[in-house]
Design goal:
Blueprint: H1 4-20, E1 23-25, E2 33-39, E3 46-52, E4 55-63, H2 65-68, E5 72-84, E6 87-105, E7 109-110, E8 113-114, E9 119-142, E10 146-169, E11 180-200
Antiparallel strand pairs: 1-2, 2-5, 3-4, 5-6, 6-9, 7-8, 9-10, 10-11
Length: 205
């Protein structure tokens, strides 16, 4: 697992890359192909509810970046754009893979039954998330310092979460019959996107 220090350094590098360093292959003439590659980084708060079949109650999730950054295994955020004249294609990919284990937890509820006070659970949680955007571009207006594109495309989201648990301690006659197990849930969604995208250059070109 990538350490927190290494990841925070990488995230800072990606953020600077997305903000100020872009690999652009420019060709002369308005009809020449132009390419733009951007790497970036952002770390939002994450909140929501996770419903897994083997665990009857929803798992409420609310974590800040300092909680999940140390547990990231893999992360990638980047976009690529190619255009010729007024027309172009844009794609963006955000991938995240994180995992965390908790020992002696008493927060889980199975089939509506809480753990006995004499028992606790070791829990391992994993989340993989992919967000992919693909859109066509058409430049509707531009000047020396700014440009405005209309875009039409789709966004695909794929999220998978896994929970593995192992109950320890005295069950004290509880009706729970599985002292260990694995539960998984997955969500996929595809939406059309349409809108305007602008860019303004501050300072010298």
């Amino acid at each position: 697992m990538m350490s927190a220090t290494i990841f925070r350094t990488l995230l800072a590098v990606l953020a600077l890359a997305g903000a100020s360093t872009q690999a652009i292959a420019d060709a002369t003439g308005s009809d020449a192909w132009k390419f733009r590659l951007s790497l970036y980084g952002w770390a939002p708060d994450i909140s929501g509810q996770a419903a897994l079949r083997a665990i009857s109650s929803d798992l409420s999730v609310s974590v800040a970046p300092n909680d999940y950054l140390p547990h990231l295994n893999t992360v990638f955020m980047g976009s690529f754009e190619m255009r010729k004249g007024r027309f172009g294609v844009f794609t963006d990919l955000v991938y995240m893979d994180l995992a965390k284990g908790v020992a002696q937890s008493r927060d889980l509820v199975f089939d509506g039954l809480p753990l006995p006070v004499t028992a606790s659970a070791d829990v391992d949680y994993a989340l993989q998330s992919t967000t992919w955007t693909l859109a066509g571009l058409y430049n509707v207006a531009h000047d020396t310092a700014w440009t405005m594109d209309a875009l039409l495309g789709f966004r695909y989201i794929d999220m998978r979460q896994d929970v593995a648990w192992s109950i320890r301690g005295d069950m004290d006659g509880s009706a729970l019959h599985d002292r260990s197990g694995v539960a998984a849930g997955r969500l996929t969604n595809t939406d059309a996107i349409i809108g305007l995208r602008g860019r303004y250059a501050f300072g010298d070109q």
